Amino acid sequence: MTLTVALSPDDKEVLAYLISCSSTNFLNNHRKATHKTTNAAAATSGCAKVDADHPPFFNCNCFRCYMNYWTKWDSSPNRQLIHEVLDAYKDNLLMQNKKDEQEGKEEG
Fold first, then answer.
1. How many CB atoms lie within 10 A of CB 18?
2. Cα(14)–Cα(34) distance, rounded to whole angstroms?
3. How far apart are CA 90 and CA 86, in angstroms?
4. Which sign, positive or negative, has the C-alpha torsion 97, 98, 102, 108?
5. Rounded to an integer, what distance in angstroms lies between the CA atom of residue 75 and that of residue 41?
6. Is 14:72 a contact under the CB 8 Å cutoff?
7. Residue 97 pLDDT grade (very low, low, confident, very high; cuts 50, 70, 90)
8. How many Å is the Cα radius of gyration of the chain?
9. Phi/psi of residue 57, each to 5°?
10. Measured between alpha carbons, how far is residue 2 from residues 12, 25, 55 in Å?
């Protein structure tokens, strides 16, 4: 995305973290809604340190890490730009999902 060119390396890391969280949540929520199943493993945070105090870890989706990255995003001078990129990404996911569903209906 060309919007990300103006972002600092720290802002890019925040954006990547928030996209990875939103992608995971989007896919898990879609799976639950589509297949009407609950997968306990998908619902977990993926962090072995959920109850432990730890520095922010990019591959951790625990609440503490999420809030740390959210705070970085909220205090960034590029907050609005990051928000616009996230919105564009989510819109793209939704459009792709609708396209995939339509193709699935046509095949089925």
1. 20
2. 30
3. 6
4. positive
5. 32
6. yes
7. confident
8. 16
9. -125, 125
10. 12, 25, 31
Residue 82 confidence (pLDDT): 94
**Residues 33-68 as b or e (16 or more Cβ within 10 Å = b):** eeeeeeeeeeeebebeeeeeeeebeeebbbebbbeb
Give the global pTM: 0.66
* Token reading at 18: 């928030």
Tokens of 52: 């432990």
The tokens describing 75, both together, are: 């205090």
What backbone torsions phi and psi does residue 51 show, to the nearest 5 degrees?
Answer: -90, -10
Q: In this model, does residue 37 exceed pLDDT 60?
A: no
Provide, rounded to the nearest whole percent, the portion of the chain with pLDDT above 70.
Answer: 69
Contact by Cβ (8 Å): 89, 17: no
- Judge whether 73 and 2 are in contact, CB under 8 Å: no
